[in-house]
Amino acid sequence: MRWSVSLVCLAACGGEDARGDAGELPPDSAEMCGASAVLFAGELLDWDSSAPIAGATLTAGAASATTTASGRWQLCLANDTVTLVELVAGEYLGGTIAVFKDVLGANGAFSLRTFTAARGQQPPFLYDAAKAQVFVHVIGGARPVDVSSAHDAGFHFTGSAWVAGQTGTDVYVPNIDPIGGVAKVAVDSATEIGTLPIAAGAFTYVVAAAL
User: Fold this and answer.
1) Which of 63, 89, 103, 211 could share a disulfide with 9, CB 3.0–4.6 Å?
2) What is the pairing mode between strands 194-197 and 57-60?
3) Are 79 and 67 in contact (CB under 8 A)?
């Protein structure tokens, strides 16, 4: 399947972001990105400890941003329905972030987590580098997450530990069959996601807003 999602970015917003408390986005995206662009802001955290991950790179087209010491980033994206942003995070597993305009428009906070390959293979996880991984962050309340392709049993983060079950605000669906390069992701009673690209040895990240 050929993806034709536009990845044109208008600017990269470097430096510490203007957020106050974690999860609070700058009040005026237009002030930073102009009237024809949208601000994509968030934080990247360690899988278990919630320690910030600095120095990770997010790239969309010719523009990029790097996470600061606080794990936060800011990037101005074209005002498209969905944009794919590539994440490279050093020793941590990277992948693709699917950014949906309707979530950004609701001031969606992109709080994402990742692990090292070694951590991903520690119990209760059995990370398989030959399979794809999906991480879903839900804003506004716990929701059930479903992935159409064959996969191992999922987990959700309680705030202090990962436990079995695919209903939560941070949900991990592991070891998805990557054949075909796409999988349908759905979150019950939340903004629509649909079919997304997946790849072996990488995360596909998505943020949904509860309805």
Assistant:
1) 63
2) unpaired
3) no
Cis peptide before 123 (omega within 30 of 0): no
> Residue 140 domain-assigned?
yes
Residue 123 counted as domain residue: yes
Rounded distance between C-alpha atoms, residue 119 and residue 134, angstroms: 16
Domain count, the chain: 1
Q: Does residue 1 lie in a domain region?
A: no
The string of pLDDT tens digits covering residues 162-206 is 999 999 999 999 999 999 999 999 999 999 999 999 999 999 999
Q: Whole-angstrom Cα distance, residue 179 to residue 4?
A: 19
Pairing of strands 203-209, 92-100: parallel
Q: What is the 3-state secondary structure (H, E, C) of 56-125?
A: CEEEECCEEEECCCCCEEEEEEECCCEEEEEEEECCEEEEEEEEEHHHHHCCCCEEEEECEHHHHCCCCC
**Structure confidence by residue, pLDDT tens digits, 100-112:** 998 987 666 799 9
The CATH number of whichever domain residue 167 belongs to comes to 2.60.40.1120
Q: Which residues contact residue 208 at a Cβ distance below 8 angstroms, ignoring those fewer than 6 apart?
A: 100, 103, 136, 137, 138, 139, 143, 187, 190, 191, 193
| Strands of 132-139's sheet in order across | 63-66, 57-60, 82-89, 92-100, 203-209, 132-139, 170-176, 155-157, 162-164
Residue 170, domain extent: 9-209
